[in-house]
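Human: My hope is that you can spare some time for a protein that puzzles me. I am handing you a single protein, as its sequence and its fold in token form. Could you go through the record with me and say what the backbone is doing? Take your time, and here it is.
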Amino acid sequence: MIEDVELRTKLERDIDQITAMIESVLAYTRNEMNIEEPRRVSLLSLVQSVVDDYADVGAPVTLAPLKDLSITRPGTIFRSGSEKSSVNLANQNRLLCSCRPNTIRRALSNLIDNAVKYGKSAEISLQANSELIRIFVQDAGSATADYDFEKMIEPFKRGSNATYKDGIGLGLTIVSNIALSHGGHLSFETNTQGTCATLTLPR
């Protein structure tokens, strides 16, 4: 109803920022309350569905081909001298994981949003063994960037590259809390491509 286009645009921008803030705080609060019951899901399928959602809107988000994931199974006392065999985890159980799937989806979306916003693109890959599953979110940002990731995980803390970007500094806090609530953790590494965020979860 405001006829002044410039004023209307500013107000719409403010409303968008307030909405984003409310959604972030609600997501943070929901995770703290642990209102979602854990269940066993295929983490591979969950990650694929998140990536597909981004691809549907043309976002530069891809899922790297899943390599053969296997563990070594030693011979038993009933098969003395038998050679060790290998169990293919990817084919056998599709990377099953006991988790709260909606919160994991939120965590992964936050990491992807950061990678696309600050690093131009996001490539997702997975690694697993019999105990852990790791989800890697690799961006294509500056390989020489020097960020204090531990500080950026704190509530309402933002990196120097976020000065001109929308956000309130809860995204990584939410991801870290989700990881910790599952008995896992969030970590970062700067490499030749940019920055890689790693979400580690127990199986």
